[in-house]
Amino acid sequence: MRKVGILGGTFNPPHIGHLIIANEVFHALDLEEIWFMPNQDPPHKLKEGVVSDHQRVRMLEIMVSEHPNFFVETLEMERQGPSYTYETMQILTERHKDIQFHFIIGADMIEYLPKWHRIEELQELIKFVGVNRPKHCSESDYNILFIEVPSIEISSSLIRQRCKEGGTIRYLVPEPVRKYIEENLLYGP
């Protein structure tokens, strides 16, 4: 059975921290691939500097293009209505019966797992892989394989704020992503 990691998020924008997490888990678990899976932006998150779903996917495609085992999975972008991880992973496990999925979450999401939709059934479909996040606890009653990754406090909100203020985002995002953001006037004032 193939082993594939799933790293979900809004990726608004994707940044170096996402790549570090993916790369560390990829090597630690000897995975065959990592699929970056952008989700829909919930309406309550829409604020200044909003970009289209197409632009978020394009930035991800640009970011992963240099790694031969990193890919973008757009299933959640294609679905209508709320996208629950359980339903998404049900679809993916049905489509890919030869894959054992390792769902990568940060310690902030580990704390939130008890509130996830159909969490017990979800644990039967996938293996959770937890990674450390600054200021969050990684302890859980759920079965989670924990991988220590270098702690780098980079967030998409920091990058959006920097862009809005006209500051630099060099080295916070891969250079081709930075160029895409600047050329398309994303997140700017």
Can you give a write-up of this model?
By secondary structure, this protein is of the alpha/beta class. It is built from 8 helices and 6 strands. Strand 1 (about 1-10), helix 1 (about 15-30) and strand 2 form a beta-alpha-beta unit. The model is unreliable at about 40-50 (pLDDT under 50).
Task: State the main characteristics.
single chain, 189 residues, alpha/beta, Rossmann fold, 6-stranded parallel β-sheet, 8 helices, 6 strands, 38% helix, globular
Question: TL;DR of this structure?
Answer:
The protein has eight helices and six strands. With 189 residues, the protein is an alpha/beta fold.
In DSSP terms (H or I, runs of 4 or more residues), the helix count works out at: 8
Per CATH, the class reads Alpha Beta
**Count of DSSP strands:** 6
- On the 0-100 scale, what is the average pLDDT? 90
Q: Termini, distance in Å?
A: 48 Å
Sequence of strands across the biggest β-sheet: 3-2-1-4-5-6
Report the β-strand fraction as a percent range: 15-25%
Question: How would you spell out the order of helices and strands?
Answer: EHEHEHHEHHEEHH
Q: Kindly report the name of the CATH homologous superfamily.
A: HUPs
